[in-house]
Amino acid sequence: MYRTLTPVAGQARLGNHGDMSLAGLITAVDHVGVAVRDLDEAVAFYESTFGLRKVHEEVNEDQGVREAMLAVGAGETQTQLLAPLSPESTIARFLDRAGPGMHHLAYRVTDIQAAMAAVRDSGMRLLYDEPRRGTAGSLITFIHPKDAGGILVELVQPAG
Ligand code: KFV
Ligand code: CO
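A: This is the predicted complex of the input protein with KFV.
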């Protein structure tokens, strides 16, 4: 088996032991966020086309969205459909600019405060200083797309 003992690899392996690496804190792709104009239409499309199953729906005023979570397979990873609540919503701006489509990639983390410290240490910009409330009582923040390879990256610590 290939093994490397470079300092970078060594640092990554220490991710759970107090250094500032994201390694070990990200455990899964939690969901992929998709911007849509009409939530009910989009849910029907994803259910009938891909066989996904709606498992949750809520309005998040803070984020300016009405959203639905659809289980993919057993539901370890989900597709999140996001419709704007108002023309000022970030999703409305995205739809105006790019039309419906993939909006963000959400990584599940075990400890959002530790993950935020690691992001700060890496020099990437966090959009919020403190975690905000996400789907179903989760805690979320975002990394600016310009610092994350052109993708808006969400970090999510599930409730409980
Ligand atoms: N993906 C990739 N690039 C993006 C992007 C995106 N989603 N949104 C904006 N950009 C690019 C944009 O094309 C532009 O590039 C640059 O980033 C600055 O955009 O080369 P360019 O043209 O300069 P802005 O600042 O003009 O765009 P704006 O829409 O005003 O703000 C972007 C951003 C990322 C700061 C804003 O969307 C934001 O604050 N997002 C975080 C909140 C969010 O997206 N909420 C909706 C999801 S809520 C959710 O997922 C929940 C509740 N949950 O639990 O999972
Ligand atoms: Co999301």
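The first helix runs from residue 7 to 13. The two ends are 38 Å apart (CA to CA).
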